Amino acid sequence: MNIVKKQMMKILDHLTPSCEVITEKISQSLDRKLSLKERLQVKIHLMYCKYCLRYRNQIMYLRKIIEKDTPSILKEVKLDEEQKNRLKEHLKNSC
Prior knowledge:
The protein is built from six helices and no strands. By secondary structure, it is mainly α. The chain has one domain (3-94). It starts with a helix and ends with a helix. The mean pLDDT is 84.
């Protein structure tokens, strides 16, 4: 890698959050619309991080398959915040 590329990578690393934060934002984007700042952070990060890009592509592929195979009645089911929190807590405790 040449010196300019290395310097650009350092600058980008400082401008965008870590891979851990970005993958969390990618996951959150499935449940809510990200803010403009969050979307920009993700897009910039994905421009140079092949691992997060791969994660995004995989999660979007899985979402497409799940939506395709989900019966239409389940698509209409909506959970309120309390139900979501209970489900999240249950999943945390079961892992």
